Amino acid sequence: MTVIQTVDLTKRFGELKAVDTINLAVEKGEIYGFLGPNGAGKTTTIRMLTGTLKPTSGEVKILGIDMRSNEIEIKKRIGVVPDEPKIYPNLKGYEFINFIGDIYRLDKVKMNQRVEELCEAFSIDFLQKAVSDMSHGMKQKLYLVSVLMRKPEILFLDEPTVGLDARSAKILKMLLQKYTSDGSTVFMTTHVLEIAEKMCTRIGIIHKGKLIVEGTLSQLREYVKSSQASLEDVFLQLTTEGEDIASIVKEL
Fold first, then answer.
1. pTM, to two decimals
2. Looking at residue 84, what is its pLDDT?
3. Which chain positions lie within coiled-coil regions (predicted)?
């Protein structure tokens, strides 16, 4: 079942075409890695897929539902973790969790049990703190809990491990694999290519707004005609346009 689908998805900002006629088809149960250099269009694409940014043209369907006519229904069923967690600074951690629970009308008993399990897993003991007093890593963990406690059908994650300690990042990776084995779907961006190589079912690489290639790691290796290439090798070959990185480093 295709749960994320785009047809000629395009976004312009003035003369800049940030996302250029992208066609995606992500299946249920996949961990889809969406990779690209800085400014390639990754975050803009995620914002269109999650309804926080309107496309200039093209179509988005999530869980078979058209984003243009059923945005609220889609948002009920997905979870989004941005690269920069934006949380009301004057709220305490537990107040933010309860606020999200109220918005989604979650069963309080089940929610509290789920939050307790997640807090133990991610070593969260700061729910009494004000958000303004939290580090970036603390905010990232808090935001993750606010999304994971709902068990959404699709998780959109923009650089989810940034700010997390090694233990929490490992737990998150294992949780995502568990969720997809239970039928959820993950669409994620990351600059940590080792994470994408180990976790992702399929990988798409976007460059200058265009989806230049997608497939399993084996298929990407076939595309660049190198059976032993790492994902990093593939990525650099496709996005650095023949740049000699070793020479650049040597001259520094």
1. 0.91
2. 83
3. none
